[in-house]
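Severity: low
Component: inverse-folding endpoint
Summary: output formatting inconsistent between runs
Steps to reproduce: submit the following structure tokens with default settings.
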């Protein structure tokens, strides 16, 4: 064998060894399953608080005797009217019943409510002082309605124009019975006062019987179901000063319960 063939044979052997070896195994392919965790949202309900409904009951109505006792404590006292003389009678001033005549409301003076109290009043004669006929009579009344609604209704009734007209006629007739002469009478509403829950008032002026005038004032103040009345009968050139009316009404209002 020539040298060239030997070289060629060696080359072929090398090539044959490279191609004839065992092939390397391919690395296994591992498939990993993708696990997806579902996100679950849970709503927790808000607890509901159930409250039992409660009904507030109105306090029991006092007895008539209890209301009468409370009404008596509201009335004016001698100390409230310095210079005045208590009336010799405990009977209410007759003129004051005119308003009951016009409304038939038992809570008004003259109505004789079983839950009321009245007094004869106090008298002041200033004829010598002012050198003219001037006499003032002041009395008070108190009553308790069985409900606040009834007390409110009285204040509303007293403020009606027809009641004012009736009061003028009724008081004029009362003056005629006393003097024998029929006066000219008219009724006007008095200024509302800041006392109690509400107030109203009427003033009747009678002229023609004497040289002086005659005035009749009724003022009512309410607080809850309690009512206090100030009645003024005055013979003179001028009515009771407004400052004095306000003072006395406030005295009564403070005593309302």
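Observed output (run 2 of 3):
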């Amino acid at each position: 064998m020539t040298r060239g063939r030997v070289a060629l044979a060696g080359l072929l052997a090398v090539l044959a060894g490279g191609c004839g070896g065992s092939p390397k195994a391919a690395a296994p392919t591992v498939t990993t399953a993708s696990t997806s965790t579902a996100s679950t949202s849970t709503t927790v309900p808000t607890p509901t608080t159930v409250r039992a409904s409660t009904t507030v009951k109105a306090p029991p109505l006092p007895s008539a005797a209890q209301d009468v006792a409370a009404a008596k404590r509201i009335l004016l006292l001698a100390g409230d009217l310095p210079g005045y003389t208590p009336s010799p009678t405990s009977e209410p001033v007759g003129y004051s019943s005119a308003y009951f005549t016009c409304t038939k409301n038992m809570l008004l003076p003259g109505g004789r409510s079983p839950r009321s109290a009245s007094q004869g009043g106090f008298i002041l004669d200033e004829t010598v002082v002012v050198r003219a006929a001037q006499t003032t009579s002041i009395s008070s009344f108190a009553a308790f309605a069985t409900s606040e609604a009834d007390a409110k209704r009285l204040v509303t009734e007293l403020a009606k124009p027809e009641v004012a007209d009736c009061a003028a006629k009724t008081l004029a007739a009362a003056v005629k019975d006393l003097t024998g002469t029929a006066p000219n009478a008219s009724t006007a509403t008095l200024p509302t006062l800041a006392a109690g829950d509400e107030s109203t008032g009427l003033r009747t002026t009678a002229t023609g019987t004497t040289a002086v005038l005659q005035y009749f004032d009724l003022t009512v103040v309410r607080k809850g179901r309690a009512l206090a009345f100030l009645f003024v009968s005055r013979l003179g050139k001028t009515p009771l000063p407004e400052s004095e009316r306000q003072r006395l009404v406030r005295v009564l209002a403070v005593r309302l319960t």
